[in-house]
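From the pipeline queue, job 12 of 40. The input is one protein chain; the requested action is below.

Action: predict structure.
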Amino acid sequence: MPTTPRPWITTPVTGELLRGALDLERTEHGLLPHRLPAWARAQNTDGQLAMAEAQPSGVRLAFRTRATAVELDTLPTKRVYVGAPPRPDGVYDLLVDGLLAGQARVAGGNTLTIDMSTGSAHVGRGPVGTARFPALPEGVKDVEIWLPHNEATELVALRTDAPVQPAPDRGRKAWLHHGSSISHGSDTASPTTTWPALAAALGGVELINLGLGGSALLDPFTARTLRDTPADLISVKIGINLVNTDLMRLRAFTPAVHGFLDTVREGHPDTPLLVVSSILCPIHEDTPGPSAPDLAALSTGQLRFRATGDPADRTSGKLTLRIIRDELARIVRQRAAEDPNLHHLDGRELYGEADFAELPLPDRLHPDTAAHRRIGERFAALAFAPGRPFAARSAASGAG
């Protein structure tokens, strides 16, 4: 005889069930995870950062249950770029005991329409949808649902066919990482395939991802957020956004980096701190920003970027990736003389010229899924392996 379906149990989504978020906003629909605290958001006036920090890269529900079916009602906000191909719906990755066991998408939701040629944006309202995960294995298990890394996601309701309780503390170290859209996960396929998520899995640590698309700009409120967030391991990836926004010159960059690191050290004086420079990006290695959409490519439905600066302006202090890498290495060498827990990693060790030849950046700025995997694996080897900066304080290897 067929098994009688078990009745649904609705569990309120609370902070006890969430990892990777630094703040939770109660909305008319449910709970909106944020990756910057409310006080930091209040100091921000940039729409790009507001969008990025509300996209829950690295944020996941984590619970223990006997449930064999799970449903999560959400209200996503999807991005639409005028003239560019439609973006696929965001992916929800479900892990059982650390292994991928299901994926789902939520149709509908709100839309944020962005015209890159004018910088204008418009929000359209849409309905709540459901991510469904049927036929999970029997028995007690630890379940994680990683939210789409590239869609703001209001959590409306969690339903299961058995009770849930918050996942137990596995005793893993917390790795706090800050970086640009590449750390955020741009152009990878799903939330557990961003390079920080992959590196965290290989390193056996719990990820807090402050990769903020377009917004790794040495903002003081970001430094204070890093300072105030409990963490056992910290990394900051600096470079590409400062070039492609053409935000500052070398004269301002050097003291800004020192000030950023000083602030982080106020809250974490002895925590292993790894400063990482940009991966290879040929359009900006020796050409300053700003970056701009390639309108000729956009007219054919392709999103690509180009560098609009003049290489001759390097002599007046304009930043390129090569200049930033050299200066970051010098700053870390200087500071490490009195800070033995400060370390440096050249981003070209994660993705360099040979990698670009094999796995080119599709839009000239961002790696694809295969390149994210390579970067994540390389970071794990260069940061978490024995003798590396995070080795002494990382936990046993496993899924993050």
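Job complete. Residues 140 and 201 are 21 Å apart (CA to CA).
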